[in-house]
């Protein structure tokens, strides 16, 4: 979005310049050309920003994307749900929805879970790759701690929360508990991964 | 839809080629029009239809930007509703023969016809370039909303407001494109049309466009 803002400033500056140097007869031609170029170049960014602003939560129960912004329909999402007694300080007021570029654009305060979902990804085939990239966009707020053994990576902490006793970070894929570890999880184009703390 | 045939040309390159082609078509049509005797109204309409069809097809890579809406608006203003409806229908069908014909063609023809009728209805008020440019921008939204009605064939009416709201950035692009084409085409097209209009004018007046 910062590129769009920079382009907007450039378009305003150019418009002011043209207003001063172009004759009144040709002013509309020059200004319309400048702003047409601006809108064409920024079309994708403006459209995506608008989609974020007007996005609604998917209401069809049973869908893997249920409760997620419809902006992410057909795309991959990673959700981290923190326990009630140990909510994340940045995500304690509901479930935050964070786009692939790190923009926190919607919070569902009616959600049963607190935490964050990071979505808008595509093309990932491995769960662990998606998880690391998705959590990275939050600038360390959802940092993943893990150990690697012969069974693959084992997640020990997320966002600073490390379960103790018989609690552990449990992995769900498209609404069902995953039968394999995150390192072996094969994703679909619209996979939804959920991490939440369960007990043995 | 137009390929570069054995030469690797990126999207920007193809867009540059398309804009060059459209400029060439426009220039050739303008030169041909200068050779016409005065009063060849229907010949002029045919030439505008060719420019509209080529404009829509060649500018397809640009999202929702094409000269058709402005053309039918200006024809509505200067030549009346009937001729603008004829132009709208011919451009919609002619361009969709290349881009894909279906139910949407009907809605496009209806949308552009409505734009032309509004131009004819408001002709006496659209007598300056800023007014025409403003009307052209508004017609971008109007046309897109008429097209949006086609979703009623597959989705319920309750989805229509959300569909229209979601499409507002594309409507804005259409409006900006119309503003651009109106700024560049309104005055020269008014001169050309006025030269070819005979004594069989419709109810509209000759509108002198001033900057």
Task: Describe the model.
- The complex is a heterodimer of chains A (200) and B (211).
- With 200 residues, chain A is α+β, with helices and mostly antiparallel strands.
- Chain A contains 4 helices and 9 strands.
- Chain A has 2 domains: 52 residues; 142 residues, Beta Complex (Ferric Hydroxamate Uptake Protein, Chain A, domain 1).
- Helices cover 30% and strands 28% of the residues of chain A.
- In chain A, the strands form 2 sheets. Chain A has a 7-stranded mixed sheet with strand order 3-2-4-1-9-7-8, covered by helices on one side. Chain A has a two-stranded antiparallel sheet with strand order 5-6.
- In chain A, β2 and β3 form a beta hairpin.
- Chain A is elongated, with a radius of gyration of 22 Å.
- Chain B is mainly alpha-helical and 211 residues long.
- Chain B contains 8 helices and no strands.
- Chains A and B meet through α2 and α3 of A and α6, α7 and α8 of B.
Features:
heterodimer, A: 200 residues, alpha+beta, Ferric Hydroxamate Uptake Protein, Chain A, domain 1, 7-stranded mixed sheet, two-stranded antiparallel ribbon, 4 helices, 28% strand, B: mainly alpha, Arp2/3 complex 21 kDa subunit ARPC3, 8 helices, globular
């Amino acid at each position: 979005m910062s590129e769009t803002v920079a382009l907007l400033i450039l378009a305003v500056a150019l418009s002011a310049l043209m207003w001063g140097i172009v004759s009144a007869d040709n002013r509309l031609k020059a200004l319309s050309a400048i702003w047409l170029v601006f809108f064409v170049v920024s079309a994708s960014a403006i459209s995506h920003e608008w989609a974020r602003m007007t996005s609604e939560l998917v209401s069809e129960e049973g869908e893997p994307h249920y409760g997620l912004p419809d902006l992410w329909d057909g795309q991959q999402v990673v959700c981290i749900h923190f326990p009630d007694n140990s909510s994340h300080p940045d995500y304690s007021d509901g479930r935050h929805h964070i786009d692939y570029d790190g923009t926190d654009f919607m919070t569902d305060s009616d959600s049963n879970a607190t935490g964050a979902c990071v979505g808008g990804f595509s093309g990932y085939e491995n769960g662990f790759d998606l998880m690391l990239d998705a959590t990275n966009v939050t600038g360390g707020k959802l940092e993943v701690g893990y150990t690697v053994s012969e069974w693959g990576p084992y997640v020990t902490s997320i966002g600073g929360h490390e379960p103790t006793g018989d609690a552990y970070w449990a992995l769900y894929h498209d609404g069902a508990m995953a039968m394999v570890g995150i390192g072996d999880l094969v994703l679909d184009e619209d996979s939804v991964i959920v991490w939440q703390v369960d007990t043995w | 839809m137009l390929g570069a045939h054995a030469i690797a040309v990126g999207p920007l390159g193809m867009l540059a080629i398309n804009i060059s082609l459209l400029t060439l078509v426009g220039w050739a049509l303008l030169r041909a029009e200068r050779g016409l005797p005065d009063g060849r109204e229907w010949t002029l309409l045919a030439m505008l239809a060719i420019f509209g069809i080529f404009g829509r097809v060649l500018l397809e890579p640009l999202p929702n930007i094409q000269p058709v809406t402005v053309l039918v608006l200006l024809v509505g203003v200067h030549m009346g509703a009937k001729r603008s409806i004829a132009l709208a229908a011919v451009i919609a069908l002619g361009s969709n023969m290349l881009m894909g014909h279906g139910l949407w063609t009907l809605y496009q023809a209806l949308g552009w016809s409505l734009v032309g009728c509004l131009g004819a209805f408001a002709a006496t008020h659209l007598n300056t370039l800023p007014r025409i440019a403003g009307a052209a921008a508004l017609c971008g939204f109007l046309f897109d909303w008429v097209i949006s009605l086609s979703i009623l064939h597959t989705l319920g009416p309750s989805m229509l407001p959300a569909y229209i709201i979601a499409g507002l950035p594309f409507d804005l692009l259409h409006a900006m494109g119309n503003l651009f084409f109106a700024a560049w085409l309104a005055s020269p097209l008014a001169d050309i049309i006025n030269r070819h209009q005979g004594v069989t004018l419709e109810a509209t007046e000759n509108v002198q466009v001033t900057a």
